[in-house]
Amino acid sequence: MKKLLKHRELLLVGIIAIMVAGFATRAPGFATPGNLANIFNDTSILIILALGQMTVILTKSIDLSVAANLAFTGMAVAMLDAAYPGLPLALLVVLAIGIGAALGAINGYLVWALQIPPIVVTLGTLTIYRGMAFVLSGGAWVNSHQMTPGFLNFPRVSVLGMPLLSWIAIVIVVLMWGLLTRTAFGRAAYASGGNPTAAVYAGIDIGKTRFFAFVLSGALAGLAGYLWVSRYAVAYVDVAAGFELDTVAASVIGGISIAGGIGSVAGAVLGALFLGVIKNALPVIGISPFAQMAISGIVIVLAVVFNARAERRAGRIILRDRGAKEVSA
Amino acid sequence: MTAVEKTGAETFPVGDATPVRRMPVLEMRGISQIFPGVKALDGVSIALHAGEVTALIGENGAGKSTLVKILTGIYRSSEGEIFIDGQPVAFASAQDAIDAGVTAIHQETVLFDELSVAENIFLGHAPKKRFGLIDWKAMNARATKLLHALESEIDPTIRLKDLSIAQRHLVAIARALSVEARIVIMDEPTAALSRKEIDDLFRIVEGLKKQGKAILFISHKFDELYEIAENFVVFRDGRAVGHGRLAETPQDVIVRMMVGRDVENIFPKVEVSIGATVLSVENYCHPTEYRDISFDLKRGEILGVYGLIGAGRSELCQSLFGVSHPSSGHLTLEGNAVHIRSPRDAIAAGIVYVPEERGRHGLALPMPIFQNMSLPSLARTSRSGFLKAANELALARKYAERLDLRAAALSVPVGTLSGGNQQKVVIGKWLATQPKVIILDEPTKGIDIGSKAAVHGFISELASEGLSIIMVSSELPEILGMSDRVLVMREGLMAGMFDRSELSAETLVRAATGNA
């Protein structure tokens, strides 16, 4: 299985490479380093959100409220920046992460303490958080001229030839990889999804693990809220509408099992990049946005089918082994 | 035919060889059921007669449920024939069995809370009008009639969730009778019923007898069987070891058939010097599962816990491990009062639990072997909050060697291992926590004889190393062979504590079934 997973990540790298090469034949310049760096930068926010989503999915849950969380936090920090231009940027970023984490904690609490299924909880909070963004702003937009230049330009600052937005995504990828593979929390997340009952018997508090997964997902959504608003230089209620589905799609394409317990950071990142390449390439080669959506959808379904087959194959191996043992016994 | 089965030396000729009566409604001849590695049924023959109740008696795991599943078309038997009215039949599906007139009332009946009583009764075979529409009027009328026949006034239009447990049971019976059944199987129908409800049920059974139905009645309660059944069949280890007329057969004869005579000395118990008390349980009570349980466990001791399914054994052990919580009672570990609120507390205190369903409770199959093994021990293998893969691998390697685990590498997912090796991972995982008390729930369930001996040898080895062991088992030979003392539970209560010197199969079965 692990071989298969590794295989799968390599497979994704291969598919992405082939796609890039293919698009390059239609649109010269697509495969240049500069354009690829642009695509990565464009996909950075999706990568950050997908890593949060992945952690939640690992614990056998799902967070549908990430995009709404992003919209609310983005709106909140944009309005703060517009109203109090003197506030330091660092404080606003910390605030964004904090607000996001708090909204995530609400999800986590409802799932943990009240034992409500995560899909129901986050479907509810998805609407609530968007509604809160509307109440907060009164439906008004915060436009680029209202925000301070420091607030807007930060993600665009170039360090070593790449914008800070890309660097932030890279740092978070590394941190998440460390968190999921090198800490007890990460192990608990895999165990809670892989077999919740066994996890309980091993002394893991799966409720608490899920709670922290939601807090993490919320914190990353909060950070993404700031990044989104500053990158696109506008905040309004419908920012990133439907983007939660992209985060789920990126996870699923990246081989994170929707049943929990299986998946890697590399997979989620590659899944996000896959979507990023498609989103950037299709307009370049002249495919309509509607066809783009259909193509993304087909890819997601294919990925799910692929996952299901991979997991079933593992089951067959067990059966065959068992049979073989009995014959020899 | 005669009362004697051709099952070799273990046959018990009982009573007079019953003369040939009427042709049996249902006859099973030479039924065998082979699961990979296990022969669940071995050449079993039984006959059911119209208007009579046949009691099917046997320990847990004797093959009763397998027989029921063959009769209801859920399993197809590996060998043997089934005759109904002398005609050979083959059940390819559950529907075939229903069509042939076999119906079963299961221990835990599968009914639908949100559907009406009539819908529950006729689900799958509702009376239809033209265009395939359900004929509600006819359905409700027939449901009322069926329920009347059971002396019940339940309104067929109300939803099942509004009924009491006993009423639901009646609905289940009505459902079983809604098909034109001539053979009715009742699998522990009294398990969840009060005495009065049992009396009501027995009146229904008498009614069914009068209608000429052949009934196969499975129960652990001898008093009930003597009350209701004419014939009996005793199963042991997948074989029918005796049958006859119940009225002519005293209870102790049946108990002896159930347990067999050859249970001594299969398990060469390693003599271990037993040390001081490690664990004391005082007056443990649970709101629903058990009451007033007290016992001591000493160093190097193996305490067997015996009882029928549903006696509260697993629930007690789960409370000791913090999965569920006692409502009152005290726990003392090595002289200190401990309060266990979660498995984490239990592991920290040195109490671990190897669950019965290893697949469901034991392992995260997608995770690598070493990560499964280190899961409860992460606090010890980590350094300042960070996991150390090297330490985890070292830990896993140590126990993999000790348990002779066969795997390509410790980094492969547990799901790729065979059942026996998965079991070793579970045991290794718990030994790695360096426990003081280890609770084994049905440690040899579902594994073949050869592996059983290895597991028993290993348990003895653990005891000789000074571990205290609580071994829950439904298998009498295992309990008798391995235990220093045996705690018997019946219906959530302590039915006795027996020292090794006073252990005998009959004593334990009597205590467990409540037949003093």
Automatic annotation (TrEMBL), chain A:
It is a multi-pass membrane protein. CDD domains: TM_PBP1_transp_AraH_like. InterPro entries: ABC_transp_permease (IPR001851). It holds the Pfam family BPD_transp_2. It is found in: Cell membrane. It comes from the Bacteria. The chain crosses the membrane at residues 39-59, 66-84, 90-112, 119-142, 162-180, 211-229, 249-278, 290-308. The keyword Transmembrane helix applies. Keywords: Cell membrane, Membrane, Transmembrane, Transmembrane helix. PANTHER family: ABC TRANSPORTER PERMEASE PROTEIN YPHD-RELATED-RELATED (PTHR32196), RIBOSE IMPORT PERMEASE PROTEIN RBSC (PTHR32196:SF72). This is Rhamnose transport system permease protein. It comes from Neorhizobium huautlense.
